[in-house]
Amino acid sequence: MTVPSESARTTGPSDISIALTGSGGAGVMTAGNLLLEAAARAGWYGLMVRSSGPQIRGGEAAALLRIATHPVECLSDRFDVLIGVDWQNVHRFAQEIPVDTASLLVGDPDQGEPPEVFVKRGAQLAQVPFKKTAKAIPGSWPNMIMLGVAASLAGLPAEAVEQVVRKANKGSGDALAANLAAVTAGFTAARNLSFAGSLGGARRTEHPRWLITGNQAAGYGALRGGVRFVAAYPITPATEVLEWLAPMLTEIGGALVQAEDELASINMIIGASFGGVPSLTATAGPGLSLMTEAIGLAVSAEVPVVILDVMRGGPSTGIPAKGEQSDLNIALNGLHGDAPHVVVAPNSIADCLSTTQWAVHLAEQLQVPAIVLSDQFLGQTRSVIDRPADVQFMGARSVLEAGVQGYNRYALTESGVSPMAIPGTPDAAYTADGLEHNERGVPSSQSTDHSAQLDKRQRKLLGFEFGSHWAEIEGDGDADIAILTFGSCTGPAREALSRLTAQGIRARLISLRLLAPAQPERLAAALAGAKRVLVVEQNHSGQFLRHLRADSDLPGEVRSLRHPGPLPIRAAEICREITEWKAA
Amino acid sequence: MEGRMNTASPAAVPCTPQTFKSDTKPIWCPGCGDYSVLSSLTKALAMLDLRPENVVVVSGIGCSSRIPAYTTCYGFHGVHGRALPAATGLKVARPDLTVVAAGGDGDGYSIGGNHFLHACRRNVDLTYIVMDNHVYGMTKGQPSPTTEPDWDSKLAPGGTRMRTFHPMVIALAAGANFVARAFSGDPNGTAKIIADAIRNPGFSFVEILSPCVTLRPEQREWKTQVHAAPVGTTDDPARAARRIMTDDGFNIGVLYAGTRPPYHAVVGVGTRRVDDLETEFAL
């Protein structure tokens, strides 16, 4: 675990990190969500990461919040405040909730001592009798006392909290009164606590902002790209994508089918897309494993589909409710045969929208499957973001407008993309096939047809102009130091870049969205002149680094900064790696 | 949904069975029952006055799964065992099309068994034809779920000793809305059953006994064993189950036709614009 060696506050009054913990079912997530919403209403930014044990109820739960006066894309290096509504199994979060001597630990004296792992780090201790206080207010719950304490410590105006509590308790007057009284009691209790980290500063209530998770953003991006059919099997941490899409698809005139398994869901979307309707499925690692055979079918039959993989800890069942960037290998190389396809990765919660939308565009344009690698952090983290700029990516499939004599579905065109006949079009019927075929679509095992179709399918991807969305390049373009990363590691890398810049250390950041097909020339240009390249990723074996090396000769000295999930890569780790490297 | 609706062919001459036959030569062995099934399917489509461009034949992998390309309909020849999911996605997204899924006993009852159950339950308006020859043909002679327990083969010497799968009872129990048995040796009767199956709303299942004369030459005798079901079609699943459980496996005819409303997704009718969904997140 990385706690910054200076052990000093790296967050000022413009930035506060609060962890709310307790046993599952104690209402920790509810309190966290209300706290984030109140911050949003007050005109601040923030995010909330959900972390919990495997139990549906009765396990341990933590709402990890960061609230700031400016947009934030990752958790902080440390927590200013840790509140336990109870301490049951909360020690299991020791690594995920770094505290230090400047942190405040708030616990209920009737729930026992705070876990030793936190206390021994020198945090200041404070007591609030959550349970007793709640008991004194009939109909209220300890988590609402906790909300009041947290909101007060964060420096939130009481009106903002009251607003969100009212909104959450529509229709039941008694419950609302009890909860409001509980929140007020929390505010009162917090007055006795000594804490100097409350937020101050500007609020942006007029600025257009959204409160959204990456899973919702990805779902919305899919719809904006033109997706109107979704089939999927429930799986953590992707289920919320489906639960958001199900009613929304109905409202806009599409459909979602809950499939019997992932083998079915991928084949359902291929069937729907064969019928001309842009289609998507959402899953996580185990589901992606089941889908790989049919993804190859979509490559061979040239049927566009989008597979959103919200990565979690693997292999096997792994760590279902916590994130890791470890599905790179299977997404890139999991298909048998030579099966060119698209793999992209959104690099922020807001970017889940534009990159999923882009994936629909690419899949439709190129008539290929496109895999979107999101992850549990991006997917399940709820965040206050500036309204993302509109992007124009739209599925635009090359469709055969009218039947022609001797229609060749798999014609060897210059671009490799051949017009697709949609069922219902007279005089253009063909059979889409996973068997190798000739231009007409008739199965063929001849070497000439095989080579020609392999070339065609590869040509589609190699000749395509992917445009500037392939990567996000930031910082000093001439700097010797380059940070190379993708996906959810981009947030901490961005924050590290700005801290390094503030320290006078020049660096550039390259966050790749387009992972396949690889763009070695573009990458070489982005890295031109770099002498030290730090590759940052959240997995055990360095899948991203290996992938980069397979297609590119990285310049200068290359170092890998990586560790597996569920611990996030923190900005402080990246900063330390770079400053130590420079000093060496 | 943005699928295209059917457009009548400019030369709307009535289709004949021949209209539905492609010029692709089947890979099937001489004497294979599947030739007759192909013929019955094309007859049924002509009987129903459908047009090839508005019909999609979806299949998995196996000898019989080659059938889509032998028709002039749109075809989808997918991966092993997954014809029903592909057909389901297609029909839900494009309710205007006539969707026929087809394949063999290994494809449908073994590797695709789970999809069979759930397609019956889901009751999407499509027709599923299984050409059952009680053997894996394409891989040259391994036992399938409908193979007799004592059938000797290289892979299962002395037989599988496993009870045979009873597709019609399973279909009924899982909720299929139409359950019939046909015999490839009677192409006209089979054509009529397929037409009835397509006409019946919801998930229609047609089990067709279709001999593999190469690997199971004894199945040539099926023609002497089949007989018309002694009783008519029922809409009572309990009665249908009893009949199917107690028959000799050679009763031919529509044994069950139910009235359960098919799976219905309202597609293509939106009440909100995509851009308006922004209000779900805007503060």
Short account of what is shown:
Chain A is α/β, with parallel strands linked by helices and 584 residues long. Chain A has helices at residues 28-41, 116-119, 130-135, 142-154, 158-168, 173-191, 214-225, 239-252, 262-274, 285-301, 328-333, 349-366, 376-380, 447-462, 490-502, 520-527, 543-551, 571-583, and strands at 15-23, 45-52, 60-68, 81-84, 104-107, 124-127, 209-213, 229-232, 255-258, 279-283, 305-311, 342-344, 369-375, 382-386, 431-433, 471-475, 481-486, 507-512, 514-516, 532-537, 557-562.
Structural account:
- Chain A has helices at 28-41, 116-119, 130-135, 142-154, 158-168, 173-191, 214-225, 239-252, 262-274, 285-301, 328-333, 349-366, 376-380, 447-462, 490-502, 520-527, 543-551, 571-583; strands at residues 15-23, 45-52, 60-68, 81-84, 104-107, 124-127, 209-213, 229-232, 255-258, 279-283, 305-311, 342-344, 369-375, 382-386, 431-433, 471-475, 481-486, 507-512, 514-516, 532-537, 557-562.
- With 584 residues, chain A is α/β, with parallel strands linked by helices.
- Chain A is globular.
- Chain B contains 8 helices and 8 strands; from the N terminus they run αββαβααβαβαβαβαβ.
- An 8-stranded mixed β-sheet of chain B has the order 2-1-3-4-6-5-8-7, sandwiched between helices.
- In chain B, helix 1 crosses helix 6, helix 4 packs across helix 5 and helix 5 packs antiparallel against helix 8 (237-246).
- The longest helix of chain B has 14 residues, at 34-47.
- Chain B is globular and about 70 Å long.
- The interface between A and B is large, with 68 and 62 residues.
- Strand 15 (431-433) of chain A pairs parallel with strand 2 of chain B.
